[in-house]
Write a structure and sequence with these properties.
Rossmann fold, 13 helices, mitochondrion, transferase, 7-stranded mixed β-sheet, 4-stranded antiparallel β-sheet, NDUFAF7_sf, alpha/beta, EC 2.1.1.320
Length: 361
């Protein structure tokens, strides 16, 4: 903990990702999971969304070079999709520490949610890695004054003759928000008459405003990925919950600033004036539903009136400890007295693995 505190003071950032803190072992676990699951008879193709400083990419390439059959490392490609030019440059420097990696690695500086950047649809099997990406993606806030009123979009407008910003509520019109509401089932379309009547009475007697943060950025990203890479396998890791969140609403974010090595949490998301970190928890049940929706299975399930359609993807959610015990080398992050920070201190993070069903034997 002292070591971690000193790191934060030196770098003045709010959060070090596990892949940085536990290099190379964290990334080695991901590489092993890919090796066990991928069809190694064809060239291995990996995409990483938001590669940070390049640590994950370098460590995975290291692991393949050291542990995979020669043909796997020799024929593989690793592409980082990075929106930040400065991070893209840093990733090339990190991976370039091993000269042979550079012939297998490239960085594309672009927005992964923009379909045009992907070019033609790639029908080949591949892996997509997203580490601590979902918590930083845009979310939209919706509001309802009670338990039965329709959900409304929350817009922000400047107060006239003031620097203050206030919320304004408008009917749902954004297609991404409307899709999210439908995927989650927040439109109450499937409720029985008895439940609907009970909610209506309750809203009259005890009206309770509702707020929910919708992962529209996640939906947009997965739509683009499923369109561009229809045979992709996905591995994502993120926070399943965040402690000490004081901002109201389902899936509300933690908004914090770092000053002199100390973290200051904000009670209002409107306090984030450009120097705050915003972390959203990932609802992994909802992530799975969005994944199935973007693969087309949920739509087929809704439209089919006869046989139940077969799921197009097989999914698995594991907490970090279970994932690393299965695929990693937990002894490498264990102290002499048995304490293991990777397994013991990251209980609020999970891994989500999603593969096409036709990849499963």
């Amino acid at each position: 903990m002292r070591h971690l505190k000193n790191l934060y003071k030196q770098h003045d950032i709010a959060w070090f990702t596990p892949v940085e803190l536990f290099k190379p072992w964290y990334a080695y676990g991901i590489a092993e999971a890919i090796m066990r699951t991928a069809n190694l008879s064809i060239p291995l193709k990996i995409f990483e969304i938001g590669g940070g400083s390049g640590t994950c990419a370098k460590c995975i390439l290291d692991y393949m070079m050291l542990n995979a059959p020669d043909k796997v490392y020799n024929n593989m490609t690793y592409t980082s999709i990075e929106i930040s030019p400065s991070l893209a440059e840093r990733q090339l420097e990190t991976v370039g520490e091993v000269q042979s990696h550079l012939s297998r690695y490239k960085v594309e500086c672009r927005d992964a949610t923009d379909r045009t950047g992907w070019g033609p649809v790639d029908p080949q099997p591949c892996w997509v890695i997203m580490l601590e990406v979902l918590d930083n993606l845009p979310h939209d806030l919706v509001y309802s004054p009670n338990q039965v009123s329709p959900w409304m979009e929350v817009w922000l407008e400047k107060v006239q003759d003031s620097l203050q910003i206030s919320e304004v509520y408008k009917p749902l019109q954004d297609p991404l928000i409307a899709q999210c509401v439908k995927i989650i089932g927040m439109d109450n379309g499937g409720q029985s008459r008895l439940i609907a009547a009970s909610r209506h009475i309750l809203s009259k007697v005890f009206p309770k405003p509702r707020r929910a943060w919708m992962p529209t950025g996640c939906l947009k990203l997965l739509e683009a990925l499923h369109w561009a890479l229809p045979k992709m396998s996905l591995i994502a890791s993120d926070f399943s919950y965040l402690p000490d969140v004081s901002i109201p609403g389902d899936r509300a974010p933690l908004v914090s600033s770092k000053r002199d090595g100390c973290t200051v949490d904000h009670n209002n998301y409107l306090d984030a004036k450009g120097d705050a970190d915003i972390f959203f928890p990932t609802d992994f049940w909802l992530l799975e539903r969005i994944d199935h929706h973007c693969s087309g299975w949920l739509n087929e399930q809704t439209e089919s009136k006869s046989l139940k359609p077969v799921k197009k993807r097989r999914t698995l959610t594991l907490d970090t400890a279970a994932f690393m015990e299965e695929f990693g080398l937990p002894t490498k992050t264990r102290t002499k007295d048995g304490y293991n920070p990777l397994l013991d201190d990251f209980r609020n993070t999970k891994f989500y693995i999603s593969v096409p069903t036709h990849n499963i034997t």
